[in-house]
Amino acid sequence: MKLSPRFIAYMNGMKFRSLFSLAVFASCLCFVSNLQAQRTLAFKFIAGGENKLSVNTTTKIAMKYMGQDVETTMQMESGISQYIDSVNTEGMAAITQKITRLKLSAAGGPLGIKLAFDSTAADSQDNPLSDVLQPIVGAEFGLSLSRQGEISDFKAPADLLLTLAKQPGSRAFGQMFSEAGFRNMVSQGSLKFPEKALNVGDQWKDQVVLTAGEFGETTV
Q1: What is the pTM of this model?
Q2: Is the pLDDT of residue 6 over 50?
Q3: Domain, as residue range, for 111
């Protein structure tokens, strides 16, 4: 059987259109698959709920002092409870946050000093750092937290800030225990999600600048 040139051309056209349709269909499947793989991460707050957190940080600061390289290492461990007072229509939560325990150690610096404090220790009241750090334990801070983890309307207790400002030892920590410093500490211990949708394997980062008086400034 001999096929006419017109029939052959028609069949070739059908084959091309079939391949093109298959390619478009495959592309659509990939697009749908990508849409299904993407997720937007967000917190879901429930009024009356309570979260208990443990935050551990290690900060190493390198500096020059009288021509010498000097390093300071500061470790802080804190227990935090968060009570969700209310949640608005946009999913933002009004939160009361309390520091339930605090442990700090610092070593190095220009003088090579070592400092340590543990609020759970039996002799914590006799510690030289007690006047500065003990009032922080049990203090309640107010803040708002968005579904992405963005902090706003942060407020530290006025009486706590006044008490700390009167303590001579607090000068060694600079702005660390000011209202801005406490806000930075809360941000450091919070998880902040990106607003864009993510695929499996995507990464993101967030930075917090901490000012620690004689220990310098660091970006976390």
Answers
A1: 0.66
A2: no
A3: 50-219
